[in-house]
Amino acid sequence: MRAKQVFNYLSKCNRRIKELAKANREGYFSIWFDYISAFVSHGCLIDHYVDGRFYMYRRNVRKRIMTYRRLCEFIRICNKPEEVKLLNNKTEFNRKFSKWISRKWLHSTEMSRNQFENLYNHCDRLIVKPLDKCEGKGIYALDLKHTEEECNQVYEEF
Q: Which domain of life is it from (predicted)?
């Protein structure tokens, strides 16, 4: 299983680096070399390297950027492992801190039809945020027309 995960991650890296090389008209191998260096030296993952534009920073700036490895170390030092699980689970986090969260929300796999209709009827816009993405990826706004057909369609989609 571990070998398959490594292979999948390297395939993803290869795809992202090809896209980056094409978009920036840079050398494919030089970007690979730089990414490997960023991964080994700083713990930078491919999404942060490309989407966070880590490749644009010089060595002295890279030392100060919060990478995945540094984040994990920070979390390990500052938090108990059982509390960190709460931060990684958006649904549980929203439940526990709902008193302080100033938004209405639903977890799509747990919501009832009535809960969804109540939210749908009281909002002009829904913000859809995937549970398995980070750094703002996959988030989009859905402007509502408040029709029965749209309500059914949106409910079935989620």
A: Bacteria
d(CA 141, CA 124): 10
Asked whether 75 and 84 are in contact (CB, 8 A), the reply is yes
Residue 46 CB: number of other CB atoms within 10 A? 20
Q: pLDDT tens, 90-129?
A: 777 777 777 887 667 666 667 777 777 777 777 777 777 7
Taking the whole predicted model, whether its pTM rises above 0.85 is answered as no
pLDDT, tens digit, 9 for 90 and up, residues 26-47: 899 999 999 999 999 999 999 9
- DSSP letters, 90-127, are HHHHHHHTTTT--S----TTT--HHHHHHHHHH-SEEE
Angle (CA) 84 100 132, round 5°: 45
